[in-house]
Amino acid sequence: MSKQFDVVVIGGGPGGYVAAIRAAQLGMQVACIDEWKNAAGGPALGGTCTNVGCIPSKALLQSSEHFEHANLHFADHGISTGKVTMDVAKMIARKDTVVKQNNDGIQYLFKKNKVTFFHGRGSFVKAADGGYEIKVAGKDEESITGKQIIVATGSNARALPGVPFDEDKILSNDGALRLGAAPKKLALIGAGVIGLEMGSVWRRLGTEVTVLEGMDKFLPAIDEQIAKEAKKSFDKQGLKIELGVKVGDIKADKKGVQISYTNAKGEAQQLDVDRLIVSIGRVANTIGLNPEAVGLALDERGAIVVDENCKTNLPGVWAVGDVVRGPMLAHKAEEEGVAVAERIAGQHGHVNFATIPWVIYTSPEIAWVGRTEQQLKADGVAYKAGTFPFLANGRARALGDTTGMVKFLADATTDEILGVHMVGPMVSELISEAVVAMEFKASSEDIARICHAHPSLSEATKEAALAVDKRTLNF
Q: Angle at the Cα of 461 (from 58 to 426), degrees rounded to 5?
């Protein structure tokens, strides 16, 4: 007889492992199935985010930023270093250590919370009495049964049609994080989060980087004023970004990759590079899940169909994170995972899509929450705007990084904050204040009246809120 659980979670990424832990905290018997393997073949919990996404990319961004600071900025502080070199193999090894620390941390949390872990691929077998039978295909195949099932199988990198990833010359985010040396020439297709972050890493190490983007506008999903400020900074750094391109044939051989494309002027171009990173988005991962065995509904994009509470078309089956609708963000998956565990327990889990923050961890960092100025105009919403540049912030001057600004958008009548947009130093941390404020329906006046530490970057947030009412104090 198969082992019985109150909840079986398929997938151990941010949505899955958090859902498993929360369900266990609420007194349920919980199992989590995840197939990710480390180099030794052992379990590597944490999904794409921990293994080939958020965590390793931030480790490489940090290392490469230190290298660039030592090369270009230490002298401004009176620090003489002599010739600075980068050991790429050691940088990659440090990244792998950071990843393993996170993998091991999740295993510890499972033990602490008494979550039973199965290493292998989980798939539906059939509906069972009061639940579902799930097969675990791993080193030893076995079946378990869960009264409630949470699918959190994540997403996979989207490949260009007819151009599969070989992770040698043509790379997904996975291969991009495992390069053994800085290529002389690197191309990226897609000027989104992955493209800009990976492009930044290798540009800092001396690679000639070209980013090819099909859209006519740079980062069209974010506030236009912020996007223009970011683009200006990237151009100055030497990150070559071509917009409005149409990619044609791509050929890879031992020497490298040849990319044929048409530029925004309609001119035929060819770009020869050592490596190509394709970062054109991600697709929901249901490979091997066997949804047809139980009649689990998928949409036309292959994502699992859910309602606003993450319920699927099947009783007792839920789905969260990248495998369902909504932004493919690790923290969105975590919030849905917690909410579903609480809903199973009879509580009222909460996820507010309107206050999910977005961050691009380049330098300068880009972060935002809520609606953009373009969206408010399109929706016919009367609003007030206020901006404040880091150039006028004392802490930013002391850091030696005064790029960018903070921008507030507030309702013209009620003053409720409708959106906050930032580009500049450490704005990935500053955006949380805006998220809290919007979640509690705060006004720009509320932020303007709150005391902020001096000197701190957060003062730019206060000043931008003051700017909504045209009463900044330091600009």
A: 15
Distance of alpha carbon 329 from alpha carbon 115, whole angstroms: 24
Instruction: Note the pLDDT tens digit of each residue in 208-226.
Output: 999 999 999 999 999 999 9
348 tagged catalytic = no
What is the Cα 209 distance to its own chain's centre?
Answer: 21
State the average pLDDT over residues 305-309.
98
What are the contacts of 34-39 at 24+ separation with CB within 8 A?
A: 34/117, 34/118, 34/119, 35/119, 35/120, 35/121, 35/122, 35/137, 35/138, 36/12, 38/100, 38/103, 39/96
pLDDT, residue 226, reads 98
Domain spanning 355-468: CATH 3.30.390.30: yes
Is residue 9 within 8 A of residue 21, CB to CB? The reply is no
d(CA 57, CA 61): 6
pLDDT of residue 129: 84
Q: 367: exposed, middle or buried (C-beta count within 10 Å: 0-12, 13-18, 19+)? A: buried
> Per the residue annotation, which of 331, 348, 452, 454 is the catalytic one?
454
170-280, CATH topology level: FAD/NAD(P)-binding domain (3.50.50)
Say whether pLDDT at 386 is over 70: yes
Residue 1: predicted pLDDT: 65
Residue carrying the six token digits 């100025």: 373
pLDDT average, residue stretch 296-305: 97
